[in-house]
Amino acid sequence: MRTTIRFNSALIFFSFCTLYLIILFNLFLIQIWNRTFFSSLGTHQYQLTITQLPVRAPIYDRNGMAQPLAVNKECVSAFIVPNKLGNKETLTQFLQEHFPKAYKQFLTKPNRSFMYVKRRLSQDEIQLIKDAACEDIHLLSESSRFYPLPCAAPIVGFTDVDNKGLAGIELQCNRDLTGKATTCYLEKDARSGCFYFKKELKHAGTQSKPTQLTIDNNLQFLVDEELAATMKQYDAQEGAAIVMDPVTGEILSLVSRPYDDPNTGSFDIANLKPRGITESYERGSVMKVFAALAALEEQVVTPQEIIDCKNSKTCTIDGRTINTLKAHGRIPFADVIAFSNNIGIAQVAKRLNEKLYEHYTRIGFGSKTGISLPGEQAGLINHPSNWSKQSIISLSYGYEISSTLLQLACAFSMIANEGHPIIPKLIIDGKPQEIRKPLYQPKTITTIKDILRKTTKYGTGWRFQLKGYDIMSKTGTANLLENGTYNQNKNIFTCASIIEKGPYKRVIVSYIKETHTPNAHADTVAVPLQKRIAEKMIIHERVI
Amino acid sequence: MKKNLFLSLFIITNIGFLFLQIRKQMLFIKESFRKQKHERTLAKLEQKKQEIEHAMYLAQNKQEIKQYAQDELHMKPIRLTQLKKVSP
C-alpha cells in the first residue's frame, strides 16, 4: 500500500517535472532560441510607425474663405492585397471584365503585398464593386482636389492622384499647400488594431498653408463669359484676357480659352495653360505705342509733327513694301498712332534705329515679368545684330517682336503708373509693390496718354468709349506666322487699354486668335470685347 | 509586536500604491480609448462636412445661378448705361 502511494507520488512528481521541463524548454525556444523572430513578430503586431501628411490647404481668391478656387473632397479608391487573396478566381474574373488595366498589372506581379485596382472611382464604379461583393477588393477613402470655378483652372492648375501639384499655383505653391509630414510611433492593440496605448512623436511636421490669390472669383467668371461670347461670335480658336491693377500689380482676372474642366478627370493638359502667360505672339500695331514712347523720349518726334503717310495703303521705303489698313495723307504724329498708320510709324522708327531695341527691352519685352506662375514665356525681340533692312520697319508696328499678354499688361501698367514699372502679382503675400524708378519722363508719359485718349476718341479704339471714364486704348491686328510665311487669313487681334476714374485705375488686355470671319480687325473683334469686360468690371467694382 | 505592525503597514501601503498605480493605468487606457473614439467621430464628421461643402460648392456654380436667374426669375444682365448715380 505504502509502495503504491510512493510510486503514485513519484509518478505525479515526475509528470509535473516533465511538464515544467516542457514549459521551460518552450520558454527557452521562445525567449532565447527564437528570440529575434518572436521579438520582431511582437514588434510588428504592437508597434507601428505612421507618417501622416497634413490635409492639402485650399486656394482662395482675393475675397478669402468664402470664395475658394481649390478645395479638398473625399474620393474612393479600390485596392487588393494580392499575396493574401481569398478567392483568386472570382477576383481575376471580375478584374478582367471590369478593370482590364488592373488585371494586366496584377498578372505582372501576382504576389505583391498591395495593388490599387483604380484610384478616384466614379459613383458607378463604386456601386459596381459593392454589387460584386468581392471580398478581396477593399475600398479606401482618399482626398482629392475640387475646383469650384473651372475657368480659373489655367491659373490654379491641378494635382496628380497623390495630390501633388503638377501645374499652375498648385505646382508653384506645392510646398506650402502640402506642409510637412508628421511621423509618430504607436503602440497599438494587437487584436483589433483600432486603438493605441501609446503615441510618441518622432518627427514633427508643419501645417499646410492656404494660398490667397489676387484673382477676383466673380470678375474671373464675368471676364470668361465675355471672352467665351466673343470667341463664339467670331468662331475663334483661342483667346485670353487679363485685368490688372496697375498700381499694385495685382492680377484681378486672368482668363484663357479654350480650357478643360480639371474636375472631370480626363482633360488635355494643353488646355489648362494660362495662355496670357505661356503664349507669346507678334502683336502687331499695339506695339506702336512703345515705338512712339521711345521716339517721344528720344525727342526724335513731337506729337504735333506732320508725318507724310503717302496717302496710300502701300508704300516702299528703302526698297521694302509697307502695307497699312487705311490711306492717310499728311497727319500729325499723334494721329499716326491714333489711326494706326504703318507707313507713318515706320518713318519715325527709322530715326530711332537701334535705340528702338533698347527701349523695347527697357519696357520689359524679351524678358520674364517675374510673376510667380510656372511656364511663363519671355518672348523674343530680334536683336540688331540679326536685323535686315526690313527689321526696324517691322519692329515699329509689332513684327519681329513677340510678347505675352502679361508683358503687354505690364507695359500698359507702367504707362498708367506714371512710368513706374511693376512686377505682376498673383499671390497675396502682404508685401507691397516696390516703387521703382520711372522708366520714362513724366512729360513723355503724359503725351503718350494723350495720344491713347485720341485713339479711343476718334482712332481705331473709337468703339471703346464709356461716358464718365478716361479710356486710353490701342489695338493691334497681326498676321500669324505659318511655315515661315505670314498667313493673311490667320490673324491675332489684340487690344490693350487703361481705364481711369479719379484714383481708380485698371489695365485690360485681351486677344482673340484665328477667327473664321472674313475682314475682321482688332477694332471690330477685340475692342467690343474690351468694352464689355470694362463695363462688367466697373459694375462689379461699383465705380459708378 | 511593533515589528509585525510595521511590516504589515509597509506591505499594505505597498499593495495600496500598487493598486492605485494599476487603477491609474487602467483609467489612462480607458480615457485614451475614449479619446480615440472621439477622434474617429471627429474624422467622420470632418468627412461629412467636406461632403456638404462639396455639395455647396457644386450648388454655387455661377453659370447655373445665372441661368436660373434669367430663366426662372426673368432677370437681365445690367448695362453700364442703365445705371444712374444718385448723389446724397
Itemize the secondary structure elements and their pairings.
The complex is a heterodimer of chains A (544) and B (88).
Chain A: H1 2-33, H2 35-46, E1 47-52, E2 59-61, E3 64-80, H3 88-98, H4 100-108, E4 115-118, H5 123-132, E5 138-146, H6 153-156, E6 158-159, E7 165-167, H7 168-172, H8 174-178, E8 182-188, E9 196-203, E10 211-212, H9 217-233, E11 238-244, E12 251-257, H10 275-278, E13 280-282, H11 288-297, E14 306-308, E15 314-317, E16 320-323, E17 330-332, H12 333-338, H13 342-352, H14 355-363, E18 380-381, H15 391-396, E19 401-404, H16 405-416, H17 442-458, E20 470-482, E21 485-501, E22 504-513, H18 522-541
Parallel strand pairs in A: 2-10
Antiparallel strand pairs in A: 1-8, 2-3, 3-4, 3-5, 6-7, 8-9, 11-12, 11-22, 13-19, 14-17, 15-16, 18-19, 20-21, 21-22
Helix pairs in contact in A: 3-4, 9-18, 11-13, 11-14, 11-17
Chain B: H1 2-59, H2 62-71
Descriptive notes:
Chain A is of the alpha+beta class and 544 residues long. Chain A has 2 domains: 51-212, Penicillin-binding protein 2a (Domain 2), CATH 3.90.1310.10; 217-261 and 274-541, DD-peptidase/beta-lactamase superfamily (Beta-lactamase, 3-Layer(aba) Sandwich). Helix content of chain A is 37%, strand content 25%. In chain A, the strands form 7 sheets. In chain A, strands 2, 3, 4, 5 and 10 form a 5-stranded mixed beta sheet that branches. In chain A, strand 21 (485-501) and strand 22 (504-513) form a beta hairpin. In chain A, helix 9 packs antiparallel against helix 18. Chain A is elongated, with a radius of gyration of 35 Å. Chain B is mainly α. Chain B has one domain (9-75). Chain B has helices at residues 2-59, 62-71. Chain B is rod-shaped. Chains A and B meet through strand 3 and helix 18 of A and helix 1 of B.
